[in-house]
Amino acid sequence: MTIVFSDKFNEHVITPDHPESPRRLEAIYDSLTKAGLWKNVLTPKDATMKELEAVHTLDYLSFLDKFGERALSIDTLVHKETFSIARLAAGGGIMAAEAAWKKEKPAIALVRPPGHHAGPQFGGGFCYLNNIAIAAKQVLHTAKKVAIVDIDVHHGNGTQQIFHHDPQVLYISTHQRYIYPGTGDPDDFGIGEGKGFTVNVPMMSGAGDSSFDFAYDKIVLPILSEYRPEMLLVSIGTDAHYRDPLASLTLSSNGFAREVSSLLDFAKRNCNNRIAFFLEGGYDLESLSEIITHTVGLFNGKNTPLKNVAIADAGCQELESLKSIVQMQKIYWKL
Ligand SMILES: [Zn+2]
Question: pTM score, two decimals?
Answer without folding.
Answer: 0.98
